[in-house]
Structures are given as structure tokens and as C-alpha cells.
Amino acid sequence: MSHGRPSYWDQACVDLAANDPVMAGLIEMYPSVSLVGRGDAFHTLARSIVGQQISVKAADSVWARLVAALGDVTSEAVLAASVEQLRACGLSARKVEYLSDLAAHHQAGRLDPQVWLDWDDEVVIRELITIRGIGRWTAEMFLLFYLLRPNVLPLDDIGLIKGIALHYHGGERLPRADLIALAQRWSPWRSVATWYLWRSLDPVPVEY
Question: What is the pTM of this model?
Fold first, then answer.
């Protein structure tokens, strides 16, 4: 799997800046940074589950407690830990179930991204959401941060919705259909546009 800066990043920035003056401004504000690929499929999905419906800061602190408790957040370590241990890290009962289910899938060999490399984004999403606790948002984070797919638009992401409202509509949140229409101008680089909107809200890059 590719680690580090995606090969398409520079081209995406050139195209986005040419098509959209707001994007041009954001890209200029954060010149030397990019999305960074993560090396581990289980990690990426586990981090996304931890991050569901809580702030990035809260998710980071829960993740840090998991790392401290387990040594490394591997599927083996999750399955070996007790429910109490996992709950003590700040996970809800439901997230403990989801994390355990994900770990069981991983141990059974059902998380093999090598198989997914040629798959269409939507097909990967359909496969991932068969795992308990993985909804569309988590699957989209996986496409973005692990498979480094260039054209993901996570329409349920609070940061994306907020960023579009702030930069394009004076703080007013738009209906979903309008978000999709606005994002047309970013294709085929909607992942990159999403990432810059996230950065504009939080200068620390988010990673899953």
C-alpha cells in the first residue's frame, strides 16, 4: 500500500486552484502539507470507529488511552482485552462491540485491501459496511486515508459540511443536493478538496 503523500496531490492542487478561487486560497494557506497514507487497514478502521460522533480531539485522547492500555492497537490485542479494559479507555459499550467485531473480521482474513485495489469506491463501501459499526462515513474515511482514493466526498462529515458553509455560504449550511452540486467543480479530486476544507477548520491534519 502507498504511504506518504499521494502521487496525484500536486496535479489535484493545480486543477482545484484553477477551477475554484476558494480552493486556490486554501491551497496557498497550507502549501507544504498533504493527506498522508496510513499503513495498516485494521488501524485505519479502528481509528474511524473510535472517532465516530466525537470530536477529533476526544478521539485522539481515547486512541492514546487504547495505545497505553494495549501497547499497540492490533486485532489480537483488542480480542485479548476485556470489555472492562476497553471501556476504561473511554469507549462506549457499542464501540467496544464494533471494535471487537472488526478485530474478529481482521483475524479471519476478511480485511484484505489488496483484493480491493481494483474495486470501484462504491463496491469497497458496500463490502465494508457489512461489518458491524462501519457505516458509510467510516468506509469513506478508509477510502480517503488508506486506499488514498482521490474523489471521495463524505457528505455525512461534520467538518466538510461546516467548511463548505464557512467558505462558500457565509456560515449557512446547505442541503445535501446543493453540496453535491457545489462539489462537482472539484471532481475528480473531491478527496483533496475535502482535506483542505478540514485543514481550514483545524490546522492539525486529521489522520485515520
Answer: 0.82
